[in-house]
Each structure stands twice: as C-alpha cells, then as structure tokens.
Amino acid sequence: MTILDGKKVSNDIKNEIKQQVDKMIAKGEKVPHLAAVIVGNDGASLTYVGSKVRACERVGFESTMVRMSNTTSEIELLDKIEELNQNDDIDGFIIQLPLPRQINTQKVLMAVDPSKDVDGFHPENFGKMALDMSTFIPATPFGILELLDRYGVETDGKHTVIIGRSHIVGRPMSILMGRKGFPGNSTVTLTHSHTKNITQITSQADIIISALGVPNFLKAEMVKDDAVIIDVGITRVEDENSPKGYVITGDVDFENVSKKASYITPVPGGVGPMTIAMLLKNTLLAREQRM
Ligand code: NAP
Description:
- By secondary structure, the chain is of the alpha/beta class.
- 40% of the residues lie in helices and 16% in strands.
- NADP nicotinamide-adenine-dinucleotide phosphate binds at residues 140, 163-166, 168-170, 191-195, 198, 211-214, 232-235, 271-272, 275.
C-alpha cells in the first residue's frame, strides 16, 4: 500500500511555483496577485482562507483578504466583485463558500470575471472543462488529478466510482475522470444520496473518490482488494482529548480500508493541501494569461 502524500506533493508544486515567481521577479515582471473574499465569521472558512493567504506568501504571490460582515447584502457583495473584476492589479480571486443565507451563491459566482475565476466555478469555465478546452479546473479535482499523475496511478480503462455530486468536487471529478487522456479514460459511476446498493457499486471499483462529508462512511467491506482510494472528506468531529476540541476526519475508515488499498490518501495530508497548491497554480496561469 502506498500513501498518496498530498503534503509532500503540494510542497513540491509550491517549490516549482516559487521558482517561476523568482524568474518573474528577476525579469522585473509583476508577480501573481490572488484575492480571497470571505463573508461572515465561520471558523472553518477563516482557517481555509488563512491557509490560502499563507500559501501565497510562501510562493511569493501578493495576496489580499477581503473580509465582509455576516450581514453583507447580495448587492454589496456583487459591488465588491465588480471592483475586483475591474482591479488590474488582481489576477484572480475566490469567494469563500458557504455564503450567508441572504446571498444567492449562483448569482455571485456568475458575477466573477471568468478570466479571474481561479476556482473554476463560473459556468463558462465549467463548460470549457466539460469540452476538454483549456481553462481553470476547480482546485480540488485538479489536485486529485495531479496526485494520480505524479504517482503514476493507472486510470485508463479503470472503473472509477465517485461518491457525492457537488458542483465543486464530485460532478467535475466525474467529467475529468471520464475524459480522453491521462488521468482519465476511466469508466465513471457517479453516486449520491439516492443511489441504491452503494456497497455493490463501490466493491466493483478500481478507484473510489469519496466526497460526501460523512466521517468514516467508506468501510473495508465496501472496497475490493488493491483499490485506489481518494478521500476528499473533511469533517470536524468533536474530540475532548484534542487541544482544539475536534479532530479532522475523512470519509474513509482509513485504519481498515488502508489494509486493502493499493494507494490511499490520508486525512489530513492528502487532498486538502493539494487543493491549495492547485489554487496557486490557477492563479499563476491567470497572471500568465494577462501578460
Ligand atoms: P456537498 O455539497 O456537501 O455534497 C455532498 C454530496 O454527498 C451530495 O452529492 C450528496 O448527495 C452526497 N451524499 C450525502 N450522503 C450520501 C450517502 N449516504 N451516500 C451517497 N452519497 C451521499 O459536497 P462537497 O462540498 O463536495 O463536500 C464533500 C466533503 O468534501 C466535505 O467533507 C467537504 O468538507 C470536503 N471538501 C474537501 C475539500 C478539500 O480540499 N479536501 C474541498 C471541498 C470539499 P445528494 O446530491 O443526493 O444530496
């Protein structure tokens, strides 16, 4: 069994990006600038945005964190997005999700200029991805592809089962694993909460990508020998023995599933750090496209 070490691979990617930024600086070029908008005080969201800003600093990008209160109206957020769209100094920006109830998420994501949409959530970019055109691929699926690629995990002709059909992970992942090329050329089954007999489906999978957010959902008896297991889930589970009062738990019963798997991602240290590295990669791409 091989651990797909997202922490290590993401550090390699950050080092590669840093080298490119150093070259940009040596040539007197502008370095990439990422902005992150966060609305409200959700603890997990603040942690994620903080990690993204620190990652920018680490690779030499400029970064701006835009904090808006929990009572921000949709119009106020749309005005802020327009300001970022027009700001030539900003190469790419993200709107941290989830947004407070009074704001229509779809409307907000549609307002982002597709050329600055480094999360790849705008329908124009999502459509391009589905049509195999060059675009910003959403960071989490992009990170999973990169992990499979760097470890040389075979996907061609394999049966990939994806659990969860969210617009940010499961749905794009199903498109990417089924497209022509590597990683890809998989036969894909996309499962969700209405799927019947899920164990029957997962136990036939060569590759399982789990993105549902239910701790320890995927058990050893749901997995065949030598399967490749990608655990996207991140859930805070209360734990009074932990200094923070919680532990981060994935969707996979790692202890038992890892005994059967050929490759497996840990949580934490698997898909999570890859997501941040690929956001940086998309921001670098956005800068290059604006030169
Ligand atoms: P989401 O929007 O929370 O949706 C969950 C999906 O799982 C839905 O499609 C739902 O089906 C499906 N589902 C729920 N219970 C199920 C069950 N018992 N059997 C089969 N499918 C079931 O998904 P998300 O935003 O992609 O998040 C999923 C997890 O990934 C969360 O833990 C999140 O924190 C984590 N995440 C991690 C990263 C990272 O960087 N590592 C990035 C994004 C998300 P329906 O569509 O039928 O409701």
